Amino acid sequence: MERLRHYLFVRHGQNWLLLFRFGLVGGSGVLVNMLALIAAKRLGPDPESVFLDLPLTDFNIRWYHAFSTIAFLVANLWNFQLNRHWTFRSARHSGWWREYLPFLAVGLVTQMIGLGILTLLMHPGSIFSLSPTIFDNSSGLRTRLYWAQLITIGITTPLSFVVNKLWTFSSVRGRTPVDVDEQTPVAPL
Q: With the C-alpha atoms ordered 171, 176, 177, 179, is the resulting torsion angle positive or negative?
Protein backbone atom coordinates (compact mmCIF):
# COMPACT_ATOMS: atom_id res chain seq x y z
CA MET A 1 0.00 0.00 0.00
CA GLU A 2 2.87 2.36 0.79
CA ARG A 3 4.40 1.70 -2.65
CA LEU A 4 1.10 2.54 -4.32
CA ARG A 5 0.77 5.75 -2.30
CA HIS A 6 4.36 6.70 -3.20
CA TYR A 7 3.76 5.87 -6.86
CA LEU A 8 0.54 7.89 -7.05
CA PHE A 9 1.34 10.91 -4.90
CA VAL A 10 5.11 11.29 -4.89
CA ARG A 11 6.24 9.97 -8.22
CA HIS A 12 3.23 11.36 -10.07
CA GLY A 13 2.51 14.35 -7.84
CA GLN A 14 3.34 16.75 -10.66
CA ASN A 15 0.73 15.06 -12.85
CA TRP A 16 -1.93 15.64 -10.20
CA LEU A 17 -0.96 19.32 -10.09
CA LEU A 18 -1.16 19.52 -13.88
CA LEU A 19 -4.54 17.78 -13.85
CA PHE A 20 -5.80 20.22 -11.20
CA ARG A 21 -4.61 23.24 -13.21
CA PHE A 22 -5.97 21.73 -16.42
CA GLY A 23 -9.28 21.24 -14.61
CA LEU A 24 -9.40 24.87 -13.47
CA VAL A 25 -8.59 26.09 -16.96
CA GLY A 26 -11.14 23.64 -18.35
CA GLY A 27 -13.75 24.91 -15.89
CA SER A 28 -13.23 28.44 -17.13
CA GLY A 29 -13.30 27.05 -20.68
CA VAL A 30 -16.66 25.40 -20.01
CA LEU A 31 -18.00 28.78 -18.93
CA VAL A 32 -16.59 30.44 -22.07
CA ASN A 33 -17.94 27.57 -24.21
CA MET A 34 -21.41 27.84 -22.72
CA LEU A 35 -21.50 31.64 -23.04
CA ALA A 36 -20.49 31.37 -26.70
CA LEU A 37 -23.09 28.63 -27.26
CA ILE A 38 -25.83 30.70 -25.61
CA ALA A 39 -24.88 33.74 -27.70
CA ALA A 40 -24.83 31.70 -30.92
CA LYS A 41 -28.19 30.10 -30.08
CA ARG A 42 -29.80 33.46 -29.30
CA LEU A 43 -28.40 35.17 -32.39
CA GLY A 44 -28.87 32.27 -34.80
CA PRO A 45 -31.79 30.31 -36.21
CA ASP A 46 -33.58 27.41 -34.52
CA PRO A 47 -30.81 25.03 -33.32
CA GLU A 48 -32.66 21.96 -34.57
CA SER A 49 -33.24 23.25 -38.09
CA VAL A 50 -31.03 22.07 -40.93
CA PHE A 51 -27.78 23.97 -41.46
CA LEU A 52 -26.48 21.87 -44.35
CA ASP A 53 -27.72 18.78 -46.16
CA LEU A 54 -25.03 16.17 -46.72
CA PRO A 55 -25.00 15.39 -50.44
CA LEU A 56 -26.14 11.95 -51.59
CA THR A 57 -27.34 10.98 -48.10
CA ASP A 58 -30.41 11.37 -45.92
CA PHE A 59 -28.23 13.02 -43.26
CA ASN A 60 -27.70 16.66 -42.48
CA ILE A 61 -25.88 19.01 -40.17
CA ARG A 62 -28.10 20.91 -37.76
CA TRP A 63 -27.56 24.42 -36.47
CA TYR A 64 -26.75 23.02 -33.03
CA HIS A 65 -23.69 21.39 -34.62
CA ALA A 66 -22.62 24.80 -35.95
CA PHE A 67 -23.31 26.51 -32.61
CA SER A 68 -21.31 23.85 -30.77
CA THR A 69 -18.40 24.25 -33.19
CA ILE A 70 -18.38 28.04 -32.79
CA ALA A 71 -18.40 27.62 -29.00
CA PHE A 72 -15.60 25.04 -29.29
CA LEU A 73 -13.39 27.38 -31.35
CA VAL A 74 -13.79 30.26 -28.89
CA ALA A 75 -13.20 28.05 -25.84
CA ASN A 76 -10.31 26.21 -27.53
CA LEU A 77 -8.39 29.46 -28.01
CA TRP A 78 -9.18 30.51 -24.43
CA ASN A 79 -8.04 27.17 -23.00
CA PHE A 80 -4.91 27.10 -25.12
CA GLN A 81 -3.73 30.48 -23.89
CA LEU A 82 -4.31 29.60 -20.24
CA ASN A 83 -2.83 26.09 -20.53
CA ARG A 84 0.21 27.38 -22.40
CA HIS A 85 1.05 30.04 -19.85
CA TRP A 86 -0.16 28.53 -16.59
CA THR A 87 -0.83 24.78 -16.69
CA PHE A 88 2.03 23.48 -18.80
CA ARG A 89 4.18 26.66 -18.76
CA SER A 90 5.42 26.02 -22.23
CA ALA A 91 5.30 29.56 -23.66
CA ARG A 92 9.05 30.04 -23.31
CA HIS A 93 9.84 26.72 -24.96
CA SER A 94 8.09 26.98 -28.28
CA GLY A 95 6.41 29.37 -30.68
CA TRP A 96 2.70 30.05 -30.40
CA TRP A 97 1.73 28.41 -33.71
CA ARG A 98 4.02 25.43 -33.07
CA GLU A 99 1.93 24.56 -30.02
CA TYR A 100 -1.47 25.88 -31.11
CA LEU A 101 -1.73 23.77 -34.25
CA PRO A 102 -1.35 20.44 -32.36
CA PHE A 103 -3.66 21.76 -29.61
CA LEU A 104 -6.24 22.72 -32.23
CA ALA A 105 -5.80 19.34 -33.97
CA VAL A 106 -6.47 17.50 -30.69
CA GLY A 107 -9.42 19.79 -30.06
CA LEU A 108 -10.86 19.21 -33.53
CA VAL A 109 -10.67 15.43 -33.12
CA THR A 110 -12.29 15.78 -29.70
CA GLN A 111 -14.90 18.12 -31.20
CA MET A 112 -15.76 15.57 -33.89
CA ILE A 113 -16.27 12.93 -31.20
CA GLY A 114 -18.25 15.50 -29.24
CA LEU A 115 -20.48 16.26 -32.21
CA GLY A 116 -21.31 12.56 -32.39
CA ILE A 117 -22.18 12.55 -28.69
CA LEU A 118 -24.16 15.78 -29.08
CA THR A 119 -26.13 14.21 -31.93
CA LEU A 120 -26.92 11.15 -29.81
CA LEU A 121 -28.18 13.43 -27.03
CA MET A 122 -30.19 15.74 -29.30
CA HIS A 123 -31.61 13.46 -32.00
CA PRO A 124 -35.17 12.41 -31.09
CA GLY A 125 -34.67 8.91 -32.55
CA SER A 126 -31.59 8.16 -30.44
CA ILE A 127 -31.84 5.91 -27.38
CA PHE A 128 -29.56 8.43 -25.63
CA SER A 129 -31.73 11.44 -26.51
CA LEU A 130 -32.40 13.80 -23.63
CA SER A 131 -36.08 13.71 -22.73
CA PRO A 132 -38.03 16.54 -24.37
CA THR A 133 -40.47 16.31 -21.48
CA ILE A 134 -37.82 17.24 -18.92
CA PHE A 135 -35.71 19.38 -21.26
CA ASP A 136 -38.56 21.28 -22.89
CA ASN A 137 -36.58 24.49 -23.61
CA SER A 138 -38.95 26.46 -21.36
CA SER A 139 -36.04 28.06 -19.51
CA GLY A 140 -32.24 28.17 -19.62
CA LEU A 141 -31.97 25.36 -17.10
CA ARG A 142 -34.35 23.19 -19.14
CA THR A 143 -32.71 23.76 -22.52
CA ARG A 144 -31.75 20.44 -24.12
CA LEU A 145 -28.89 21.92 -26.12
CA TYR A 146 -27.21 23.38 -23.04
CA TRP A 147 -27.36 20.09 -21.14
CA ALA A 148 -26.26 18.10 -24.16
CA GLN A 149 -23.27 20.43 -24.57
CA LEU A 150 -22.32 20.12 -20.87
CA ILE A 151 -22.56 16.32 -20.99
CA THR A 152 -20.47 16.25 -24.17
CA ILE A 153 -17.78 18.42 -22.57
CA GLY A 154 -17.74 16.15 -19.51
CA ILE A 155 -17.19 13.08 -21.66
CA THR A 156 -14.54 14.51 -24.00
CA THR A 157 -12.42 16.45 -21.46
CA PRO A 158 -10.41 13.48 -20.08
CA LEU A 159 -9.41 12.46 -23.61
CA SER A 160 -8.33 16.01 -24.38
CA PHE A 161 -6.22 16.23 -21.20
CA VAL A 162 -4.34 13.00 -21.83
CA VAL A 163 -3.54 13.72 -25.46
CA ASN A 164 -2.54 17.34 -24.81
CA LYS A 165 -0.30 16.38 -21.90
CA LEU A 166 1.38 13.53 -23.77
CA TRP A 167 1.67 15.20 -27.18
CA THR A 168 0.92 18.92 -27.51
CA PHE A 169 2.75 20.39 -24.55
CA SER A 170 5.28 17.67 -23.74
CA SER A 171 6.73 17.71 -27.26
CA VAL A 172 8.38 21.05 -26.55
CA ARG A 173 10.01 20.09 -23.25
CA GLY A 174 13.74 19.77 -23.40
CA ARG A 175 14.08 22.25 -26.24
CA THR A 176 15.90 25.52 -25.97
CA PRO A 177 13.51 28.21 -24.73
CA VAL A 178 12.32 30.62 -27.39
CA ASP A 179 11.66 34.34 -27.11
CA VAL A 180 7.93 34.26 -27.89
CA ASP A 181 7.95 37.69 -29.52
CA GLU A 182 10.91 37.11 -31.79
CA GLN A 183 10.92 33.31 -32.09
CA THR A 184 14.66 33.18 -31.33
CA PRO A 185 16.42 30.99 -28.76
CA VAL A 186 17.18 32.60 -25.41
CA ALA A 187 19.52 31.53 -22.65
CA PRO A 188 18.07 28.83 -20.35
CA LEU A 189 16.98 29.95 -16.89
A: negative
